[in-house]
Amino acid sequence: MDQSHKAHRTRQAGPKKKSKSDKKKKRDDNSTEEKKQNPKAFAFSSSVKAKRLQSRSVEKEQRRLHVPTIDRSYGEPAPYVVVVQGPPGVGKSLLIKNLVKHYTKHNLPEVRGPITIVSGKQRRVQFVECPNDINCMIDAAKFADLALLLVDASYGFEMEFFEFLNILKVHGFPKIMGVLTHLDKFNDVKKLKKTKQRLKHRFWTETCDGAKLFYLSGLIHGKYPKREIHNLARFISVMKFRPLTWRTSHPYLLVDRLEDVTPPERMHIAGVGDYSLSGVSALADPCPLPSAAKKKGLRDKEKLFYAPMSGIGELLYDKDAVYININDHLVQFSKTDNEHGEATRKGKQRDVGVDLVKSLQKTKYSIDEKLGQSRISLFGRDPAIPSQGQHDVDGHEAAEQTHDPVTLTEHAPPVGSDEENGAEDLDSSESSDQDGASQMYGSDSDDENGETPKEKANRKGCVKEKIEFHGGRLRRKVVFGDDIDDKDLKDSDDGMEEDDDDADDVNDHSHSGSDFSDDDGEDQNTDDDMGNISKWKVSLAERTIPRKHINLMQLVYGKSASMSTTSVNEEQDDSDDGESDGDEFFKPKGQVNKKLSESLDGANASVEDCSKFTNFGDLKNWKQKEVYESIRDRFVTGDWSKAAQRNELSETKNEDDEDSMYGDFEDLETGEKYEGHQQGQSGDGSMRTENDQAAEERRLKKLALRAKFDAQYPFN
Ligand SMILES: Nc1nc2c(ncn2[C@@H]2O[C@H](COP(=O)(O)OP(=O)(O)OP(=O)(O)O)[C@@H](O)[C@H]2O)c(=O)[nH]1
């Protein structure tokens, strides 16, 4: 049987208590006496140590000092906004849910819009999930007091991290904390440790030394470990936020909802447009701070939270509507009525309004959804232009990304194909690719040797973007120039699971970091001038430049004739070039035709129709007597010799015609160029003699060349 032991209670009174306190007193006296007798024994033994201690205490003192900042806020402090940012699927929503659960003991069904919670007596915190969109990142950077940058540790840094970091830097740089997730995907403890270290050092390099990085070691029942969430929450709760000078000069307002109220004075709401203002009314604070009564901690009742968009309670605020959730069993919908609708309709005439409502109930998709799926076809043979634009559901610009000239692009197999094969493909493409990634991976030892130290230094500072298909989506991985040489991690891969292997192989190519001291040193050298960031900024700037749109004017009216014909020529040249090399040479006839017709249909819709220029003059009029007589001699009963004569005549004529038709040509055997006749001159007799002469000359030239060739190769 389990029996709990009672804690020891020290004596509060009595002789035992007295004797104990006497002993203690004696001991204390002795120690003070000792100090008094030999004070030097308790002073610093070395002056160096003393100096170091003194300077340390002075330094600590100095660090506490700050330039005084004026806090212009009054009244209750506004909630501190914690923006949770990271690439898709990194665990942003899950982290917010876990933090909310920690603070409020409530489960959040979904994370939508800002979520405000009371985290302490004097503190409210608002969590906002930052969508993966540059514009949203810019908005989030404007109101964030703290940014939690989530990184999928099993994959490494992605471009979203750097993009947001840079955006933060130009917005006054609020506080940041890094959070590593997906650490449970590592089976090898050694590898996990190394990856943690490597990512930490990289994080420090990109931000500042000692920047806080949290590790969320995995999922327990679909949630992050309580202890880790507790630690993170504690950091958020006690964090000191100093007013940012940038923020005070560029104040921003985070608007939950907007109700369109009409006239009289117009005002501009950023991101929404010009509106007329009817009035401004202050609503009661939905998430007030608890009463200021002196008591320790928060009571459960006071642990309020306000998440209007996240479906808490029975109310849900959408962009343009408010929904009240009523359980189905509480309401009798007319749907049941609908089933017997036929019978009731016979009895009495139904109201138009009722019919309308019922027809609305039947619709499966809203108008927005229907419009979203609709397609517009501008030209009959054109591929339909989807109205959704280029973006896919997640807001990725996958198609566009692959054409980014600054970035390195690599394509893995499409969804559903074998992942392992995909990884192999990646590897092979890396090794075969001469420009871009393969140079950075440093697999080619010749390249390495040929490089000057300066080039190496330049290369080390560079951050490149590598687009690949991983974990079910396109990811924009960050590849660091200084991570090439290390292959240690690859060696330690062996024990990993198959899936992990895939992920880690990719990691290993791009990341190094087994030698941390080296890595660190290099990082500090190269990142002194923040070279990294300025380089990838280029790609950021390019991504924000609006894409080139199709000019409808050109599509309808066409380019100038010369423009259009040249573009056709170019297109054909291109296709010729493509076909001339390697496997492309042999192509099914249909494909080539299709390609050509596509090029004509698409970009060059306005090209003139050359089929209209058929020379009908060549066609013979078979109704004339001489013409149909001419065919009579070709039959068995006719005179064949006459027909042969006629044939000769028509052949010479045809030759002339062909010459004039095909114009310039080059004799590939001899390398000579021949100029063709102009169409208008085909009937000219003098020209024909000239042609004859030219032909004769050509023949002689050919003979001479042949003799020369024979002389060179007598056995041939
Ligand atoms: N194994 C593992 N899975 C995780 C971890 N963190 C999150 N996940 C899973 O990743 C998936 C995506 O998590 P979310 O919280 O929806 O990610 P998100 O960043 O909000 O995704 P988006 O909203 O699409 O941007 C969920 O199925 C999580 O269970 C982790 O540390 N380890």
TrEMBL record:
Domain of life: Eukaryota
Record flagged with keyword ATP-binding: yes
Region Disordered, annotated ranges: 1-63, 380-533, 563-591, 642-699
Gene3D superfamilies found in the cross-reference section: P-loop containing nucleotide triphosphate hydrolases
Subcellular location field: Nucleus, Nucleolus
Catalyzed reactions per annotation: GTP + H2O = GDP + phosphate + H(+)
GO cellular component entries: 90S preribosome; nucleoplasm; small-subunit processome
CDD domains found in the cross-reference section: BMS1
Tagged with keyword Cell cycle: no
Segments of skewed composition (Acidic residues): 417-433, 494-505, 516-530, 570-583, 654-669
UniProt-listed SMART domains: AARP2CN
Stretches assigned to the Bms1-type G domain: 78-242
Main localization (coarse): nucleus
GO BP term, pick one: endonucleolytic cleavage of tricistronic rRNA transcript (SSU-rRNA, 5.8S rRNA, LSU-rRNA)
GO MF annotation, one: GTP binding
SUPFAM superfamilies, per the entry: P-loop containing nucleoside triphosphate hydrolases
Comp. bias intervals (Basic and acidic residues): 27-37, 391-403, 451-471, 687-699
Compositional bias (Basic residues): 1-26
The entry's keywords: ATP-binding, GTP-binding, Hydrolase, Nucleotide-binding, Nucleus, Phosphoprotein, Ribosome biogenesis
One Pfam family cited in the UniProt record for this chain: AARP2CN
PANTHER family: RIBOSOME BIOGENESIS PROTEIN, RIBOSOME BIOGENESIS PROTEIN BMS1 HOMOLOG
Record-stated family: Belongs to the TRAFAC class translation factor GTPase superfamily. Bms1-like GTPase family. BMS1 subfamily.
Protein known as: Bms1-type G domain-containing protein
Native organism: Turnera subulata
